[in-house]
Write a structure and sequence with these properties.
The chain is built from nine helices and eight strands. With 223 residues, it is α/β, with parallel strands linked by helices. Bound molecules: 2'-deoxycytidine-5'-monophosphate (DC).
Length: 223
């Protein structure tokens, strides 16, 4: 069974997807991490982010893989061609670069191919932007999480503070707004709920409440 969890930055997607996977003993795939890994490599190689030929070649020739941290239930360590980029892909420079990279057709085609291969494992929670619409349109359950821009900026700032990053709240809001606009207006696979997705507005809901709703949807499938 594939559970697709899509939504914008700060919608709670990652936390919810991980908790649902842990609770159900499912595999877990963070597709945003894959685009981030490609963006990171492009930055390190000094490639212009809009150069589809060169960024496309990086995406087509790399392998993004995941591993478990010791004692962790889910594979949250991220590698590109064997290089551990778990922390590096969360840097603000990657935040700023990733939307441009993720809007390139060749990058998306290469990542979708890797995602379909990884997702072929049975029972998996996959989080992203286009999982229910493009990558696995036949997923048994599609959830689309949203939250108000204020709430999403607040969560993102808290996440950065927890990672020890010096937080500028206005900058966080600006970065979220820019990324939302780029992700939802791009020509290929824009961020939008699948027609058959269950949309949950997580503003004002606790994490437990959101997880409980998702699990309740699943129980309809697996009584
Ligand atoms: O979920 P995230 O913030 O780590 O995602 C990073 C970027 O990757 C985000 O700007 C949108 C893009 N992305 C995408 O285009 N398609 C996906 N399936 C996942 C992420």
């Amino acid at each position: 069974m594939i559970i697709a969890i899509d939504g914008p930055a700060g919608s709670g997607k990652s936390t919810v997807a991980k908790l649902v996977a842990e609770k159900l003993g499912f595999h877990y795939l963070d597709t945003g991490a894959m685009y981030r890994a490609v963006a990171f490599r492009a930055l390190v190689d000094g490639v212009r982010l809009t150069d589809e030929e060169r960024v496309g070649l990086i995406a087509e020739n790399c392998e993004v893989s995941f591993a478990h941290d010791e004692g962790e239930a889910l594979p949250t360590r991220v590698f590109i061609d064997g290089q551990d980029v778990t922390a590096a892909i969360r840097a603000p420079q990657v935040d700023d670069a990733v939307s441009a990279v993720a809007s390139l057709q060749r990058v998306r085609a290469a990542m979708v191919k890797q995602q379909r291969r990884i997702g072929a494992q049975d029972d998996i929670v996959i989080e992203g932007r286009d999982i229910g619409t493009v990558v696995f349109p036949d997923a048994e359950l599609k959830v689309f999480l949203t939250a108000s821009p204020e709430e999403r900026s607040r969560r993102r700032a808290a996440q950065q503070a927890a990672q020890g990053v010096l937080v500028d709240p206005a900058g966080v809001r600006d970065a979220i707004d820019k990324r939302d606009l780029a992700d939802s207006t791009r020509q290929i696979a824009p961020l939008t709920p699948a027609p058959d997705a269950r949309v949950i507005d997580t503003t004002g809901l606790s994490l437990d409440e959101v997880v409980a709703r998702v699990v309740a949807y699943i129980e309809v499938w697996r009584p």
